[in-house]
TrEMBL record:
It comes from Paraburkholderia saeva. This is Fumarylacetoacetase-like C-terminal domain-containing protein. One of its GO terms (molecular function) is metal ion binding. The keyword Ion transport does not apply. It comes from the Bacteria. Keywords: Metal-binding. Residues 51-247 form the Fumarylacetoacetase-like C-terminal domain. Gene3D superfamilies: Fumarylacetoacetase-like, C-terminal domain (3.90.850.10). Signal peptide: none annotated.
Length: 268
């Protein structure tokens, strides 16, 4: 996990029993020897990606529902670094947009080593761990212009990529479900075993298109159950073994503190 200390320093490390065992960084996960109480720290997104690669149509169930063919290569877009926020941070409605805002609960892959033209085996070795992503979308912008689908604009606003609360190495993703709730009501509950491309396959194939750097995140795509969020609603996305990512949709211009946060359930 990553935190901010009272002096504004960013600290990263392994969390156990309420204490952070500090590492030099995600790029260099070597213990520094420092041990800090998490009660004196402020949680932030567990990594600071240079880019987020977000997949579309990566689940068989959703492809069948949409009557879309299963792709032969990951279909993806790029979300900017500025869109990333952590668990507990508010999703800010853009000043210029009053339409529907949608949630998408997803598994996130965090890259640990520079990866380019990698085999599936090399790609697997480059994965640092797994996190949770809420890929937020200004849904009505996607097809606002009939001549050009606006994937980047609709998904790239500041705060539109919620990531956290932790990165977990060695996750048995095959056995996990993604559970998304809006104000406590379950909206998504789907198995990660239904993915078209496994995490290692995603990393390998995407690395042949562009270089993946340490800290970059691949959002593995979502399945059935995507819907819209009302202003003031809280979205939680949970994956057993990682925890719960919680964010509220705030009105444009509201403060940066979330009014009510669902406590993160961290497995370390």
């Amino acid at each position: 996990m990553r935190f901010k200390s009272n002096d504004g320093k960013t600290v990263f490390g392994r969390v156990e029993n309420g204490y952070l065992h500090e590492y030099a960084g995600l790029h260099d996960p070597v213990p520094t020897g420092a041990v800090l109480s998490t009660r004196a720290l402020s949680q932030i997104a567990p990594c600071a990606p240079g880019k987020v690669v977000a997949l579309w149509n990566n689940f068989h169930a959703l492809a069948a529902k949409l009557d879309k063919p299963v792709p032969s290569h990951p279909l993806f877009l790029i979300k900017p670094a500025e869109s990333v926020i952590g668990s507990g941070d508010p999703i800010q409605r853009p000043v210029s947009y009053a339409g529907k805002i949608a949630y998408e609960g997803e598994l996130g892959i965090v890259i640990g080593k520079r990866c380019r033209n990698a085999s599936v085996e090399e790609a697997a070795a480059s994965i640092f761990g797994y996190t949770i992503v809420n890929d937020v979308t200004a849904a009505e912008l996607l097809n606002e212009n009939p001549h050009f689908p606006q994937w980047c604009r609709a998904k790239g606003f500041d705060t539109f990529c919620c990531v956290g609360p932790a990165i977990v190495s060695g996750l048995d993703w095959h056995a996990c479900h993604v559970v998304t709730k809006v104000d406590g009501v379950e909206r998504q509950n789907y198995p990660l075993s239904d993915m078209v491309f496994s995490p290692a396959e995603q990393v390998s194939m995407i690395s042949h298109d562009l270089t993946l750097e340490p800290g970059d995140v691949i959002a593995c795509g979502t399945s059935i159950g995507v819907g819209s969020i009302k202003d003031g609603a809280t979205v939680t996305v949970s994956i057993e073994g990682i925890g719960t990512l919680s964010n509220i949709l705030a009105l444009a211009g509201e403060g940066t503190q979330q009014a009510a946060i669902t406590a993160a359930s961290i497995s370390v």
